[in-house]
Structures are given as structure tokens and as C-alpha cells.
Amino acid sequence: MRRGLFISLEGGEGAGKSTQLKRLADRLKPRGEVVVTREPGGSPGAEAIRALLVTGAVDRWSPISETLLMYAARRDHIERTIEPALARGAIVLCDRFFDSTRAYQGAGGSAPAALIAALERDVVGDVRPDLTLILDMPVETGLARAAARGEGEARFEAKGLAFHQRLRAAFLAIAEAEPARCVLIDADAGIDEVEARIWRAVEARLA
Ligand SMILES: Nc1ncnc2c1ncn2[C@@H]1O[C@H](COP(=O)(O)OP(=O)(O)O)[C@@H](O)[C@H]1O
Ligand SMILES: [Mg+2]
Predict the structure, then answer these.
(1) How many Å apart are CA 119 and CA 98, to the nearest integer?
(2) Is 17 annotated as a binding residue?
(3) What's the mean pLDDT in 5-20?
(4) What's the confidence (pLDDT) of residue 1?
(5) Which residues have a beta carbon within 5 Å of ligand 2, which is an ion?
(6) Residue among 24, 44, 171 at smallest CA distance from 98
(7) Partner of 191 at 20 to 30 A CA spacing, among 122, 135, 154, 198?
């Protein structure tokens, strides 16, 4: 039986997801248990799969192989982390979820939309986010931020500007197609201002 609240944060590289997730967690903590997690990853098995996805040669996986790896990780994450937390009544904050597969492997990598839709239906089932915050900003700005951050997990960052433009368009299309679940946040602003925009969206949903 599900009692908690499931919020995902989405957007391109360097959009500020990880930064804002921490701030949102701090704001929500007075309301009860908050579980901060991420994809790919979020459980020991899924973190092991993450290493295969975010490091190494940019063309390491075909779009379909990459989709299946993402979904193997996602299933483990759902079973071991997300569902138990929601059953406890926790608020789950997830840095990326299935919209990133639609965008990165679907729109970006051209994995078949029918495959991705089938995986969403049969692997995610009803463990869908109650609210998805989509952080939007110009691709160049986000990539510059991500490059300045410098991490050893840059496989997706290396995919080129056209790829990242397709991602942005895909996230905008998702926000437009599913307004009941998704809120588009203009993330091209200072950290405090973006935090305030996110909090307004979350408070409206909590009310
Ligand atoms: N609103 C902002 N303005 C300027 N820099 C930011 C902003 N939000 C985040 N950053 C910085 O940009 C980089 C990428 O942010 P991060 O939260 O890691 O993005 P993401 O998780 O979406 O890839 C980090 O170095 C972070 O400190
Ligand atoms: Mg991040």
C-alpha cells in the first residue's frame, strides 16, 4: 500500500538537478522522512549498473542496449528503494527517472518509442512520480556548468550539441503532454531563485 509522495527532477546536464534536490530535501524534512535518490542508481545493484552507463566510450552501448540497462537498474531501484520508502510513507526525491530514458535513449538515441512505452508500462507499472519538476535552460549554459563541475561521469555530456538539443526538446514536449504530472521550471537563474520557483511548484502540489 502506497502512502508516500514521489517527486522526480528532470532536465539536461548541468541544469541544477542535484543542487536543487538537496535544497528541496532540506525544505521537506520538517514534514517527515525524505529519501533522496538518483538514477541510474539508487540501490546497490543499480549503482553497479550506473558505472556501466555513465563512464567509458561515448558509443559504448547501442540505444536499445542502453535502454535495457537503464530499465534493469530502474527495476532494482524501484523494488529495493522507492517502493519500500513509499510504503513507509516517505517523500521520495529522485534525481532523474523514466522521463530521462524517453529523452536520452528515445529522443536522443532513437531507441524505439514503443519499446520505451512497453517498459514503462510493465517495469515501472504504477510507481510513477506524483510530481515531476523539469528544469529547463539553454543547452550551452547547462553543458558549460556541467563541464566546469568536472566529474568522472561525463559519457552523456560528450554526446554533442545536437543530441542535447533533442533532449531539451523532448523534456519540453513531456511537460506539455503531461501537465497534471509535470511542472516546467525555468532554471536559467540564480540558485536561490530556482529554489524558490521549485518550492512554489511543490507547495502547490502539497496543498
Ligand atoms: N542556478 C545556478 N546558477 C549557477 N550555477 C549553478 C546553478 N545551479 C547549479 N549550478 C552549478 O552548476 C553545476 C551543475 O549543477 P548540478 O546541480 O550538478 O546539475 P545537474 O545535476 O542537473 O547536472 C554545479 O557546479 C552547480 O554548483
Ligand atoms: Mg546531477
Answers:
(1) 10
(2) yes
(3) 97
(4) 52
(5) 17-18
(6) 171
(7) 154
If one counts the domains in the chain, the total is: 1
The answer to whether the beta carbons of residues 178 and 119 sit under 8 Å apart is no
Average pLDDT score over the chain:
95
Distance of CA 38 to the CA centre of its chain: 7
* Residue 18 labeled ligand binder: yes
Residues 113-153 pLDDT 10s: 999 999 999 999 999 999 999 999 999 999 999 999 877 78
pLDDT interval class at 2 (50, 70, 90) = low
Ligand 1 touching residue 38 (CB < 6 A)? no
| Index of the ligand 1 atom closest to the CA of residue 11 | 22
Q: Give the closest residue (by CA) to ligand 1 atom 23.
A: 14
Q: Return the CATH number at 106.
A: 3.40.50.300
Q: 28: which 3 cell numbers?
A: 521537506
Instruction: State which residues form the domain around 99.
Output: 5-206
Ligand 1 pocket residue status of 150, Cβ below 6 Å: no
Verify whether ligand 1 is closer than 6 Å to residue 191 (CB atom).
yes
